[in-house]
Design brief:
The chain is α+β, with helices and mostly antiparallel strands. Helices cover 46% and strands 16% of the residues. It has a single domain, classed as Rossmann fold, CATH 3.40.50.360. It contains 4 helices and 2 strands; from the N terminus they run H-E-H-E-H-H.
């Protein structure tokens, strides 16, 4: 579904250059799945796709395994190390964007 959404967004409107929707964009990756790897293998493909269309993909990523068991009722992760890691991804993304803004 994500790949399909990327494909549709990549279609330019009349008069727009190709892939304009992705220019100057920065992404960080994370996944969650009920499996033992938490969607980790899918992140490799998403990283490749986004990199090939000009998105700057930051190197760190998080995959939450057994996601159906991983979250508290308030949406936080039961594993405080993973929670901190995800918060760190957000901090790193914000910091990178601030540096780009200059």
């Amino acid at each position: 579904m994500l790949k399909n959404a990327i494909d549709w967004v990549s279609r330019p409107a009349p008069g727009e250059p190709s892939l304009v929707a992705f220019r100057s964009k920065v992404a960080t990756l994370m996944s969650a799945s009920p499996g033992a790897l938490g969607g980790l293998r899918g992140l490799v493909h998403v990283r490749s796709i986004l990199g090939n269309i000009g998105v700057i993909v930051l190197p760190d990523q998080i995959a939450v395994a057994k996601a159906h068991e991983a979250f508290n009722a308030d949406g936080s992760l039961k594993d405080s190390k993973q929670q901190s890691g995800i918060e760190g991804l957000g901090h790193n993304l914000a910091s990178f964007l601030m540096k780009l803004k200059g």
